[in-house]
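ok so i was messing around last nite and threw this chain in just to see what happens. nothing serious, just curious
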Amino acid sequence: MADTQAGKTDDELLSAYLQDHIMAADSGAKVFDEARKLWADTPYGERIQGLSADIEADRQELRAIGRSLGMQLSPIKTVVSRVGRTLSHLNPLNPTGSRSGLPGQLELEGLHTAVAGKECLWRTLERIAQRDTRINAEQQKRLIERAEDQQNRIMELVLETAEIRFREDKSL
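result:
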């Protein structure tokens, strides 16, 4: 039985929730990839490359969770997701493609915020797993820890580059 006495999961609502997060993950992975390209030739490039790889792995894991629950992305949301991923190529967090000054700061802060949203997803699924055995609570705990680690790594980048970013000579 998928659910305990606490009540049956509303699969339609859960599916919609996961679909929305999948669309966000698709766009987020692209934004992280754009950041990876932008920072590639800096002392921070390798760390952002690692974060980008982690984000892509999380995106794939989220899709696998959806499939394991029998969820299929609706045709409309599939199109919206593709459009969002394409638009993310324009890097709305940093449309000027600048590592310095305000655009670079806002980009890193936006990446941190995106991962915080993903952590909320994992925590929500962990809570649902308490009554719905189709969701692996241990997997969710691992994903929560990974999201916390990613946020810490991004915050380190924010803080390490802040002093440079806010001085007159902004060369990284």
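not much to say yet. The longest helix spans residues 11-39.
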